C-alpha cells in the first residue's frame, strides 16, 4: 500500500485530490497539509511514501519543502502537482529533489499512475513540462558557431590567411570573410585576434 500525503493550500483542491484516490486498492491518503511547514511536520510523524506537493504556498513554499524533505527524509518521494509549467518553476523543483512534476489538469488515471511510479523511485514529467525542458536542447543555442565557422576559426587560430583558409576549405575568400564577420558578431569582437582569444576563453578551441 502506497501511503500518500496531500499538500496544497486550497481545501477544495485537497478534497478533489482525495476523491481521485478513493477506490484505489494500492494508494491510501493518510493526511493533508496546507503549507510546507505542515508537510514537514506530518512527514516527520507519519513517514508517508509519497508527498503530492503544490509549489505556491504560505509559510514555506513547495521548493523549500522539497529541499528540506530531500535532506531530512530522503526515502520520501515528492511529486509536484501545480498549475505552473515555466522553466523558472520546474527546474528549481527538480533540482531541489522532486521525483516528478505534474500539472493540475492531468487526468485522474495519469495522476494515479504517477503516484505509483514515484513510489517506485521513477521520474515522472507532464508531457508539457517534458516538452518545455527539451525545447532548448532541440534548437541551436543563440550565438552558437556553426561547424563551418568553427572550421574557419581554427584555421585563423593556426595563422592561416583568408586565402590559405579558402584553399583548405575549398571555398572562396569572400566566403571566408563572411564567416569571419558572423564569428565576430557572435563572439562580440571586432577582429581576428580578439575572435581567437574569445574562442579560447569559451573553450571553443
UniProtKB/TrEMBL annotation:
SMART domains in the cross-refs: HTH_LUXR (SM00421), REC (SM00448)
PROSITE patterns: HTH_LUXR_2 (PS50043), RESPONSE_REGULATORY (PS50110)
Residue span(s) of domain Response regulatory: 3-119
Gene Ontology MF annotations: DNA binding
Domain HTH luxR-type, residue spans: 138-203
SUPFAM superfamilies according to UniProt: C-terminal effector domain of the bipartite response regulators (SSF46894), CheY-like (SSF52172)
InterPro entries recorded: CheY-like_superfamily, NreC/VraR/RcsB-like_REC, Sig_transdc_resp-reg_C-effctor, Sig_transdc_resp-reg_receiver, Tscrpt_reg_LuxR_C, WalR-like
Residue positions where 4-aspartylphosphate is found in the record: 54
Keyword set, alphabetical order: DNA-binding, Phosphoprotein, Transcription, Transcription regulation
Name of the protein this chain belongs to: Response regulator transcription factor
Amino acid at each position: 500500500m502506497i501511503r500518500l500525503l496531500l499538500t496544497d493550500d486550497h481545501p477544495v483542491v485537497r478534497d478533489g485530490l482525495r476523491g481521485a484516490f478513493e477506490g484505489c486498492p494500492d494508494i491510501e491518503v493518510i493526511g493533508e497539509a496546507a503549507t510546507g511547514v505542515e508537510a514537514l511536520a506530518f512527514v516527520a510523524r507519519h513517514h508517508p511514501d509519497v508527498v503530492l506537493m503544490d509549489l505556491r504556498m504560505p509559510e514555506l513554499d513547495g521548493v523549500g519543502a522539497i529541499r528540506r524533505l530531500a535532506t531530512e527524509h530522503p526515502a520520501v518521494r515528492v511529486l509536484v502537482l501545480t498549475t505552473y509549467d515555466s522553466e523558472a518553476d520546474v527546474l528549481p523543483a527538480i533540482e531541489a529533489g522532486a521525483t516528478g512534476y505534474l500539472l493540475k489538469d492531468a487526468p485522474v488515471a495519469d495522476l494515479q499512475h504517477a503516484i505509483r511510479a514515484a513510489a517506485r523511485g521513477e521520474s515522472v514529467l507532464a508531457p508539457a513540462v517534458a516538452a518545455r525542458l527539451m525545447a532548448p536542447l532541440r534548437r541551436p543555442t543563440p550565438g552558437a558557431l556553426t561547424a563551418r565557422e568553427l572550421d574557419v576559426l581554427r584555421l585563423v587560430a593556426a595563422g592561416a590567411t583568408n586565402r590559405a583558409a579558402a584553399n583548405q576549405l575549398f571555398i572562396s575568400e569572400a566566403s571566408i570573410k563572411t564567416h569571419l564577420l558572423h564569428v565576430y558578431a557572435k563572439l562580440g569582437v571586432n577582429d581576428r585576434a580578439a575572435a581567437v582569444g574569445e574562442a579560447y576563453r569559451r573553450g571553443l578551441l
